[in-house]
Amino acid sequence: MAKIQVYNQQDKVNLEVSKREIISAIEYILSQLHQKTSLPTRQGQFHFTIIFIEDEKIRDLNQRYRQVNLATDVLVFPYSPSESEIYISAERAYAQAKEYRQTHQEEILRLIIHGVLHSLGWRDENPKERKKMWAMQEKILKGFLSTLNRQTPL
User: Fold this and answer.
1) 26 pLDDT above the threshold of 90
2) Span 117-126, mean pLDDT?
3) What is the CATH number of the domain that holds 137?
4) DSSP assigned state of 99
5) What pLDDT does residue 1 have?
C-alpha cells in the first residue's frame, strides 16, 4: 500500500470527499497504471502528500516556483520518482466543478488523479501529451467512480 497523507489547510470550501475516498482513489490509480503501463508493482514504495489550500496560497506557490502570478487548480512537487506533494486549490476545484457541470467531489478526484499522473512522470505540455494524459485521467476517474457506484454526468 502507498503511504498517503491528506491535509485540509483551507476552510472556505467543503471538500465533499472523504480522506478514505482520497486514499482509495490513489490506490486505484496506482493499480490501474500498473496494469496499463510499466509502473512498478510495489505500491508501498510511493508516498503522496495531498494538501488542500486556498487560491491565495496556491497563487503564492505558483509565483514562487513557476513565476506565474495566478491561482491554479493543482501544483505538484515531485521530490523523487516515488514521493510527491500535491497541492490542490479547493476554491478552484469548486469553481471548475460549477463551470464543467460536475460535482465538487468529481472535480477534486480529477485533480488528485491529475496530480498523481504528473507525480509519476506524465506531462501535458503540448497537445499530444495533453490528449494522452487527459484520456488516461478521465478513464481512471470513470473507473474509480464506478467503484463508488456513481456515474459521471453527461
Assistant:
1) yes
2) 92
3) 3.40.390.30
4) H
5) 67
